[in-house]
Amino acid sequence: MKRSIIKRMVSCAGCLFYLVICLSGCASGTMLEEEEVWNIGVVLKTMDSEHWRGIRSGMENAARQNNVNLTLFYPSNEWAEDEQEVIVRDIMESEIDALIIAPCNSTNTGWIVDLAKEKGIELFTVDTRSLDRDIPYIGVDNMEVGKLAAQCLDQNLPDSAKMAMIAGGGKQAQTVDRIDSFQKELKNIRGIEKDAITITKEHGSYTDALHVTKELINDGVKGLFCASAVMGLGAAASAEEMGKDICIVAIDTQDDAIKAVQRGDIYGLIAHSGYEVGQTAVETVAERLEDGPNAVKNNVYISCELMTKENIEEYLD
């Protein structure tokens, strides 16, 4: 059913950043009356990195091409669970056909599922899946990410090398999946037990990584898996400051992290396109809305690859 879009202002205690984007796919600048226009709400976790800005850009482009009115909000940071809840409850009061959410807390999405069902809104997750409910997911396979990181460190470090992971927030599914697959792969290829791998679940900032990397290096760590490019840069800065040579693998691609790979400060980046994630999410949701009750609600995974100094030019061409 075609619905009209309602833009609502969100207010909550503290500082809340929001973005509203209303985009309509057009043919020669004019919407054809017989074409269905889908109203899709999006609630992301933040907009403080190139990864999230890429997701937003991909969504905007897909909305223009698929007759979609897109309304997009996000809280002040990706740990602001309470702010995100206010946004979600508010946007569900508007006339949307579907909601795409990257949950700040993957272990507390049941209320979102219940509210969406009550209001007849199709629900999807992007970038970060749910851990407590079965919601269709669009994004990178984070089990594959952890596996690639373990393989990279294994191939570049001696058998006796100590390894660790700066994992980010523990309430988010990608953290759980990456830790699990990283540990399992190191167990598989090196026989390393879980308790022999240091896992830190600090909030995912540059400063957090800067401080915790110093502790890890002092503890003898030679290989480090960082759960974002930002944390990888913090770890690299810490190693440089201490004059230590460690093998760092991080996730996501942004200009300063790519330059760090080119310099050799970061050994590798597990690359996947935020733009592709956003574009695929809107395209997938629009397609499933078109299919109606017969839509297949499976997960859609975006590919990821390891980018190193040896092959980085292939990605920059």
Automatic annotation (TrEMBL):
Specify where it is mainly localized: other
A Gene Ontology cellular-component term: cell envelope
Ranges for domain Periplasmic binding protein: 40-290
GO MF terms listed in the record are: carbohydrate binding
Leader sequence residues: 1-27
Q: Where in the cell is it found?
A: Cell envelope
Q: Which InterPro entries match?
A: Peripla_BP_I (IPR028082), SBP_2_dom (IPR025997)
Q: Does the keyword Methyltransferase apply?
A: no
- Which UniProt keywords are given for this protein, alphabetically ordered? Signal, Sugar transport, Transport
Instruction: Write down the superkingdom of origin.
Output: Bacteria
The entry sums up its family as follows:
Belongs to the bacterial solute-binding protein 2 family.
What is the protein's given name? ABC-type sugar transport system, substrate-binding protein, contains N-terminal xre family HTH domain
Native source organism of the sequence: Faecalicatena contorta
Organism lineage = Bacteria, Bacillati, Bacillota, Clostridia, Lachnospirales
